[in-house]
User: Fold these one by one.
Assistant:
Number 1:
Amino acid sequence: MPIDSRIDTAAHAYRQNSHLLAKSFDGLTTEELLACPNQTTNPALWILGHLVWARSMALKMLGSPWERPWLSLFARGAKLPAPSEFPSSEEILLGWQQVSANLTAALESASDEVLSAPAPEKSPSFDGKVSGMVVFLAFHEAYHVGQVSYLRRWLGHGQIVG
């Protein structure tokens, strides 16, 4: 079944984001994953956890919930936990791989009924529907992929594009 045209661009963005994020994390140590330029920024590992959380929100809206006990640490508006409270980088990366595979499948099988359903109240959906929320979350993800790319350069590693 082809991906619905309302979310086709988002599906492409999710795939590209996955590719760029993998390149961004390549070669980073656990210490680097937890480094911050200052006390008001999030480390790359928190951003990855946040993206896992955001993809789980997309899955929930698409009718395919995916949970992990640590997701709430990375929810929108969550207070930055101490590094010792983070799951391991391996666990978060595994979560990323799993939620990404599930999201790909959910995007490919999303029905008109699901995509046309109203988005949750006060959500930043582009069209007021689940379809617009899926597109917004792909846009949101690209923003955070840029942050991780910047942190990578700040840490002295090479660029991920170009």
Note: The mean pLDDT is 95.
Number 2:
Amino acid sequence: MKKLWILNIFVLALLASCSDDDDGSPAPDDGIAVNSDDFIGVWEVTRFIDDGDDETDDLDDFTLEFLDNNDLVISNGSQSITASWSLSSDGKRLTLNIDDDDANQIDPNDELEELDDDPWIFVSLTGQVMNLLEYDDDDDDDDRDELTLTRV
């Protein structure tokens, strides 16, 4: 009986030590692998969450055209710039490389810089919708940026 009691205490202690900090977001390495052919084309920003705040309105005028030569044409309807994109070797991370001076030509509010440089992991990619989650959030908070693009 004493051994059973000790075993129960051990099991309860083990269960109590497990943390439940899963917020439903995939871990950085848990993104899905994609082929670049799956997202070549024109996409518009339909959802952008920056540090927990919905900032979709700041980017919903922009389209991003992914070209097969790794160029990225960003347009606001009347003006456009050419940036670049790269896909990690495992196909799970997308990096957008947007020159700040070029971005300022079509985005004086610097909203495009929120998409620049940090890799994004693919959460899902269908023929029409691409869901991305910021891979490396260098902020001190737990809010990871989210980006949804819809094919035009």
Note: The chain is about 20% helix and 35% strand.
